[in-house]
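Dear Dr. H.,

I hope your travels went smoothly. While you were away I took the liberty of generating a structure for the chain from your last submission, since the lab meeting agenda had it listed for discussion. I wanted you to have the full record in hand beforehand rather than looking at slides cold. The sequence, exactly as received, is reproduced here:
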Amino acid sequence: TRAQGYKGPAKRHYIQECVQAASSIEVFGNGDIVDPLSAEAMFRVSGCSGILLARGLLGRPWLIEDISRHLQKLPPKPRSGLDVYQHFLQHVEETLAYENPRKALLCVRRLSAWYIQQVGGVRAIRHQLSRLRSVEEILSLFEQCDWEDLPLAHSESSSEEKILHQ
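The corresponding predicted structure, in token form, is as follows:
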């Protein structure tokens, strides 16, 4: 709820009550959908017709595809640190296409923080980001990493444990 201020788990039972009360409209679930298992849990627990993704997509634009594959019972698509880097570069390119240099720097700094949360072994980058003064410096810093060897930081098992306790 709004009063929670992004703290605590989403109240899926509220969504379930809306689904049960609605007779002529579809109800969509939102909140704490961060991976395929939490999306599946939203459908299962609330009975909603669809889901909305918000913060779960930050730094992980492939989440929609991952959820879709999971719900279709397709095997997960392997993701790597290199995938994170390539998506980040595409996001930066698109940001630079419509923002002035100052706003682009602020956007890319924020984006870079979301993307590096997806991989392990990048703590040094995280500390340097706030001191960089241009998008080019951020890109240069990212180019120095060996993205192919960086492991992904998040696993679905931690999400599954949270879901089971809700």
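Two observations you may find useful: The longest strand covers residues 28-30. Strands lie at 28-30, 50-52.

With kind regards,
E. W.
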